[in-house]
């Protein structure tokens, strides 16, 4: 007889190892609240729908970014090339200074005012259309407002607990 998830114990470390075997791209999601830029590395970004154009990402509820993006209602996504691995590591680090954090990498302001990275393989801007509970994360769905493909390059990937390239 097959055991359901509630009938067995799966420790967090084993869970992380198993889901970490799914190779993902890496992106930085940004938002702007007042005059402050917020940013967070994600590998939980995906296209949802072509009609209407919808995308989503997941934000950890404990992250400072979480409340900022929910309050602002607008956000940008920069899909990272392998050359931006340092940026990915920086925006994944807890407790980093907020002031001037995006200034370390060349960026521009999108139509919605959010920071988008000039070296990104693709950029999108979105307005939040729905937020769904997802355990210790929120699933943030947005309607795509604009997009671009500022550079070509090798995509940054994350697999088995480390960065990789194709």
Folded structure, characterized:
With 166 residues, the chain is an alpha+beta fold. It is built from 3 helices and 12 strands; from the N terminus they run H-E-E-E-E-E-H-E-H-E-E-E-E-E-E. The protein has helices at residues 12-19, 64-72, 85-92, and strands at residues 24-25, 27-33, 36-42, 45-50, 53-60, 74-79, 107-109, 115-117, 122-134, 137-148, 156-159, 162-165. A 7-stranded antiparallel β-sheet has the order 3-2-6-9-10-5-4. A hairpin with a 2-residue loop joins strand 9 (122-134) and strand 10. It is globular and about 50 Å long.
Topology diagram in text:
Blueprint: H1 12-19, E1 24-25, E2 27-33, E3 36-42, E4 45-50, E5 53-60, H2 64-72, E6 74-79, H3 85-92, E7 107-109, E8 115-117, E9 122-134, E10 137-148, E11 156-159, E12 162-165
Antiparallel strand pairs: 1-11, 2-3, 2-6, 4-5, 5-10, 6-9, 7-8, 9-10, 11-12
